[in-house]
Every structure is written in C-alpha cells, then in structure tokens.
Design goal:
Length: 389
C-alpha cells in the first residue's frame, strides 16, 4: 500500500474534516506512504455565477470528474480516500476512480450523504430522520438547506438520484463511520452493513497535561449555532457563578453577547494553539450539542489534554464519554441538568481530577496516532481486497 490519493472539498475556513485530512495525511507520510491531496475549494466559486454553476452541478460535476481522472492517471494511486465531497467535488469522484479501477474508501464525517439539511440530522431544535427513513424531498418541503426552498430541492434531488442509482453501494468499497452510533444510522439509511467499519478520529499527542490544581473554570469550543446547544448553555449559566470561556464564532454570537452573564467570556474564533492552552487551563469542557454529532474531535482534544467533558447524552457523545469516568452526561436541552452537573464538578475537584486522568488514559489507549494508523491501513487493505473480487 504505497500511494494514497486523498480527495477533499474544502469549505470556507478550516473545518473539522480538514483537520482530519491534515492529520491522517501527515500520519501516512510519516509511515512512508506517498500521499497526494486533490482538492476543490468553495471560495473558488464565489459570486452569483459560481454559486449557480455549483448548484447546477450538485449531482455530478463533469469538470471535477475530468480533472480528477487526469490526476489519477498521473499519480496511479493504490487507494482513493474520499472525505467531504459536498458541494463541488460531488460523487463524480467515485466514477473517476471506478474508471481507473482504483478502490474507494469514504470517510463519513457527518450525515450529509443521507441528510438534506446540514449533515446533523437536526431540524427546528430537534433531531430529525425523515430523509433517512423516507423521501429526501422532505428536506425541500421543510426548506432544510439554509432555509431555501430551491437550494433544499437541489440537495434533495442529488441525494435521491444517487440513492436510486445505488452509487454508494456500487462505487465505495469501504465506508468509515466515526462511531458505532453513526454506523447504525448509516445502516438504517441503506448503506451496506458489511462495508461499514468504525474508525474514530485522532490527534497528535500534545504532551503530558498540567496538574489538576492548576486548572479552573469551564470551556466551550465550537461553532456558535443552534444545533450546538448554545441556548441551553446560556440558560444554564444564568444559575452558575463559575467562569466560562466560549471559543468560537457563528450566527448566535450577537445573541449570546446580548444575554451573556459576567461569568461568560466570548473570545470569538481562536487558533489551535489558543484552544490547546484554554483546554490545559480549564477544569471541564462543556459540550451541550442537541444534534447527532458524527464524532466530535473536540472531545478527543479534551481527553488528550486531561480535560473531562460534560456533554449531552446523545449519539456519539454518549458513546465516547463514560459517564462518571471520563466526564458527565446530561439530557440534551435540559439547562437545569447541565447547571447541576457543572455545579457538582466545580464542588468536587478531586473527582474531576481523577476523571481527567482517566480521559488522558482513554486518549492514549484509543485515540492516538499509532492505533489509528493500524486501523486505517487495515481498512485500505480490505478495500483493495474487496475491489479485486
């Protein structure tokens, strides 16, 4: 397994899937593999003309197909590893690989392949699986994609066309789900059970964390948007008198600034070094998401830094966090429960210090680079074997 071609659609900014692409690529290069990244960027299609072209090609982008096919012919990869393909690369990447008889691995970072809205199976403040269990055109009916009927219709049509054509089933040899709960959702959506494997994300080891007595306060890291549970977080902090740093930007930032208490500090978008520093200074990470996260990389970052997590008892979060061992869980949307968990954590520093040590141990056991490399290499080998049959 020498040459790996990585395919990625970069969104504006540097998202979680971009972090995973960078981490995995660096890991593979460190182990002697040749890695080529072929990417398209959303910011290259700005303006009305670019947006119309992207929308028109949402189901199949012939330009991406042609350019990727040429790159495959030059690089001659052993495996094509696809990450985010929405909206510009499209599933044309699968066709280009199939024409060159190269096996395809697809990492499912979110639920975009089965969800018309935002890839979170989330609508109007609650989880929603109508596009999974029924027609994708429910997404158009509810204007799930950015509140636009036309945009939602185009996304729904793309999902429907590929669902009917069985594109995923015909062209992808291994799917990587990031958690077992995500894997089960994709099976319910019709992806082949036998090709779905679980491999979590990882991060490089930041080094031994500081002692618990050097830590104080709570931390939130993420996009400031409704599905992340920011309304619940703000409501909980009305009843708390412990410092909370909020790192991130998004549409809810103005509203949060309007209602924030003296104990909440909104720091806006922060770089990776600032996030790591904040994690090594805080006593708890709070993650009140109310959507089905695929695999929140921020939890692994917290664990690596010896930081226990208080999170919603939902999806991958409930799977990753061992309640009372590496953190605490509460019912999603329940601000009173969240406030009670935070108050308990702050009143029991020794217990939280033990949870921090357990979180660090869990990171080294499951979410380090070496274990992840072995898993990824096995997945590539299984994809090659499947393509040969």
């Amino acid at each position: 397994m020498k040459r790996i071609l990585v395919v990625q659609n970069h969104c504006v900014g540097f998202g979680g899937d971009d972090v995973v692409v960078a981490n995995e690529s660096a890991m593979l290069v460190a182990h002697g593999h040749e890695v080529s990244l072929w990417a398209m960027r959303n910011d290259e299609a700005q303006g009305l003309g670019g947006q119309i072209q992207t929308a028109w090609r949402l189901t199949h982008n012939p330009h991406a197909h042609e350019q990727l096919a040429k790159h495959i012919a030059r690089f001659r990869p052993d495996v094509v590893h696809c990450h985010n393909l929405f909206p510009r690369v499209t599933l044309a990447a699968y066709e280009a690989a199939a024409q060159a008889r190269v096996p395809v691995v697809q990492t499912l970072h979110d639920f975009r392949s089965v969800c018309c809205a935002n890839g979170f199976l989330y609508r109007q403040g609650q989880t929603c699986d109508r596009c999974v269990t029924g027609s994708t055109y429910w997404g158009a009916w509810h204007r799930c994609y950015r509140g636009s009927w036309l945009g939602s219709l185009l996304v729904a049509r793309s999902l429907d066309v590929h669902r009917r054509a069985g594109t995923h089933r015909r062209r992808v040899h291994r799917f990587i789900a990031l958690s077992e709960s995500s894997r089960q959702r994709f099976i319910e959506a019709g992806l082949p059970r036998e090709r779905l494997v679980v491999k979590p994300n990882f991060i490089a080891d930041p080094g031994s964390p500081p002692p618990a007595q050097a830590r104080d306060g709570a931390l939130f890291v993420g996009r400031l948007s409704p599905e992340k549970g920011l309304v619940t977080l703000a409501e909980a902090w009305k009843h708390l008198s412990h410092p909370l740093q909020v790192l991130g930007a998004g549409p809810l930032e103005p509203a949060l600034r309007a209602v924030s208490t003296p104990w909440m500090e909104l720091r806006g978008h922060c770089g990776a070094a600032e996030v790591t520093q904040a994690m090594r200074q805080s006593r708890i990470l709070v993650m009140p998401s109310e959507c089905l996260e695929g695999f929140p990389l921020v939890i692994v970052e917290a664990f690596a830094n010896g930081l226990p997590v208080i999170a919603s008892r939902l999806g991958a979060m409930a799977e990753i966090i061992d309640d009372g061992v590496t953190g605490l869980l509460f019912s999603p949307g329940r601000a009173d429960e969240l406030a009670a968990r935070v108050a308990w954590a702050m009143a029991h520093p020794q217990e939280m210090a033990q949870m921090g040590r357990a979180a660090r141990h869990r990171y080294r056991e499951r979410y380090g680079a070496e274990a992840n490399y072995r898993q990824l290499l096995q997945i590539y080998e299984e994809a090659v074997a499947a393509a040969a049959t």
